[in-house]
Amino acid sequence: MFDHITAPDPDPIIRIMGLYLDDTRSDKVDLGVGVYRDAHGRTPVMRAVKAAEARILETQESKGYTALAGDPAFRAGMAGLLLGGAVSEDRLACAGAPGGTGAIRQLLELVARANPDATIHVPAPTWPNHPAIIAAVGLKMAEYRYFDTATGGVDMDGMLADLGRAARGDVVVLHGCCHNPTGADPTPQDWAAIAAVLEQTGAVPFIDMAYQGLGDGPDEDAGGLRHLAARLPELLVAASGSKNFGLYRERVGLAMAICSDPARRDAVAGTMAWLNRQNFAFPPDHGARVVSTILDDTQLRGAWLDELAEMRARLQSNRRALAEALRAETGSDRFGFLAGHRGMFSLLGAGPEAVRRLRDAHAVYLVDDGRLNVAGLGPGNIARVARAIAEATG
User: How does pLDDT run across 81-94, given as a tens digit for each residue?
Assistant: First the structure.
């Protein structure tokens, strides 16, 4: 049976993780793996999460199944966090999923059932798993221009021109905030222009919301999503609780479809629950219950927002410090764009040879495309990382 099976190429991020773990140098710096780290290099359990878990331990009386679409309180809490009331509840079809990745997969399966001829338009560049999942589902994919390497910002003219060629019923993947891997996000004015193009073409936006709260704040980071949701009849959203709640290993995800009317919503919600049944049946509940416990309690929600603000401030502080250190090392402002990016990542603009030199000569690990995780920086390594980047990039 397995004689002709060949292993697929390893995921580039997983490969970097392995290389880093095998490196015996004591001064190695991991700027590749996409997890949040505090100043001590740890991925902490948030205080609000610990408090919510303690409450669940004391009060939960059953580990029985919830529902195929997941716990209703989790679905409602996440819908409120994402949309802020921008859309009436009777238009929302939601289902829990194993992480944001699971939500993306389930929504693409939904697209394949609704319109198997749809083309999925993704930004260039995008998270590497987007194309992989699109291919696994069997849908067509096209890239649209997104990142301007000359400015380190969004190429809005190229993006809007490319999106204008999408067909009615196609799907356009958009990063809701903290674009991965570039860190460059559209402005509120840009989101309005994107909405106008989608309104004209009839393509359906698919928002990947993996980092809400790590850019400018939970409401600010959802501004683009809410604008599209209030303006367009249909929308898909995949949301993750991994980063903003620190629940990486609990696999907390939400798949959401905003429908044009309640009748269509019922059909879509039933299909999403059916898709869950075919794939994993009931979605994981513990992490989802942690999230709903936090969001439904004023004190816990406030504590979570405070911690999220601390994380956000640390990321921005690291960005500014690295940009200043690179300015001092290079005598130029060619890396100044780093300070204006948002979230955990930036695309450094380093080619494959520079990335290899950073790794081999300086023990500084980036993803092969030059993606840098600013959460891996700290006062003890920023100056050395800046010197390494300046040397490796010439």
Answer: 999 999 999 999 99
Distance CA 101, CA 364 (A): 27
Q: Are the C-beta atoms of 99 and 242 separated by less than 8 Å? A: yes
Among this protein's residues, is 63 annotated catalytic? no
Alpha-carbon torsion 239, 242, 246, 251, what sign?
positive
Number of domains in the chain: 2
Known catalytic membership, residue 243: yes
Residues 227 and 370 in one domain: no
Is 50 a residue of the active site?
Answer: no
Q: Which of 71, 155, 208, 221 is catalytic?
A: 208
Domain limits at 237?
Answer: 65-296
Q: Single out the residue in 296, 327, 359 at which a domain terminates.
A: 296
Among 71, 97, 103, 127, the one annotated catalytic: 127
Q: pTM for this one? A: 0.95
Q: Which one from 95, 210, 239, 339 is the annotated catalytic residue? A: 210
305 inside domain: no
Residue 14 has a pLDDT of 83
Q: Is 28 annotated as catalytic?
A: no
Class of residue 228 by CB neighbours under 10 A (exposed 0-12, middle 13-18, buried 19+) = buried
CATH number of the structural domain spanning residue 201: 3.40.640.10
Residues 345 and 235 placed together within one structural domain of the fold: no
